[in-house]
Amino acid sequence: MLWNQNEKYELYPYEKEAELEDAVLEVKEALFGNSRIYLDDKKKIGAKGGTNNLPDGYLIDLTNDQDPKIFVVENDLASHQHLKHIAVQILEFSLSFDSSKVKVKNIIKGMLQKRPEAWKQCQDFALKNKYENVDFLLESIIHKKDSFNALLIIDELGEELETVLISRFKFPVEVITLKRFKNTKGELLYEFEPLLHEVTEDTEKVNISEIDTIVVPAREDGFNDTFLGENCWYAIRLNSSMIPKIKYVAAYQVAPISAITHIAEVKSIEQWKDTNKYILYFTEPAEKIKKVPLGNAKNKAPQSPRYSSKEKILNAGTMDNVF
Fold it and tell me: pLDDT for 262-281, tens place per residue?
């Protein structure tokens, strides 16, 4: 329930997948941001005689000038689908995508051509970043290595499903939960976290294309025993599409130290036990750096993992220059 002194909103579950799809369209600007284009046309992909699938849509992500992406989107109701079905569906999307990249490009190009504003947004991005045209931009995104990304939008995400999505796939899968509430007057509210909101929060001071470091808050015992003692850091949540960018991990020691004090190069990132979290192994013991104190920016103290760059951290006077 969502409540204040004037009214209350009760959870209003979706009965059909189409209702979730309508909700996505209603909140898409807040859900995806201005630099992402959501295309909800349903077109079958896959090679003739092979695996064929019908994604619910595509999301063109232009937030990173150096690494634009396309997500294949699946909308699902947890109450209607077994987690095995959802996992198999996403796997089949990846197979269909990889076997019919020319077809996928032409489908997305056709969708954009029907949407003049979206076409112009892609055209402006292409010209700004030295792609010859929209066609070449799409070609570059879809035909590069490891180009498949999945986005699952669901009404409820259980820990078991999240763990499956981490452990079963070698490609990135981002997940958004989108819940619906209604008051007695029939007015609706939606509850969600915008796509990659953790990353968006941290790009005020660092361009997303420059991100290469995850900053983790550490208490004294964990810092000494694990970060320094075991040359790793574990039970950490990460956005799967950001994992390839993470080259370093920096330790922010909580109060009374209240500063970033060490940084280590990341050798590998793996699933942490049988959970929906990760463990980061270091290449070598963490290096002590010039302290980056919290300073006056109390709201900059990391409460959870934060994204930045090694260069920003090493050159920062206070935490206000890091995020």
Answer: 999 999 999 999 888 999 99
Model pLDDT for residues 163-179, shown as the tens digit of each residue: 888 777 889 999 999 99
The neighbouring-strand residues paired with 251 are 216, 262
Q: Is the pLDDT of residue 240 over 70?
A: yes
The CA distance from 210 to 199, in Å, is 12
Paired tokens of 306: 């934060």
With helix as H, strand as E and coil as C, how does 271-309 read?
ECCCCCCEEEEECCCCEEEEEEECCCCHHHCCCCCEEEC
User: Mutual orientation of helices 134-143 and 101-113 as an angle, nearest 10°?
Assistant: 140
Q: How far is residue 226's CA from residue 242's CA, in Å, rounded to a whole number?
A: 23
Tokens 């930045």 map to which residue? 308
pLDDT given at position 180: 97
- Vertex 245, ends 269 and 123: CA angle to 5°? 145
pTM (whole model) above 0.85: yes
Distance between CA atoms of residues 176 and 200, nearest Å: 15
85 and 161 in contact (C-beta within 8 Å)? no
Cβ atoms of 323 and 298 within 8 Å: the answer is: no
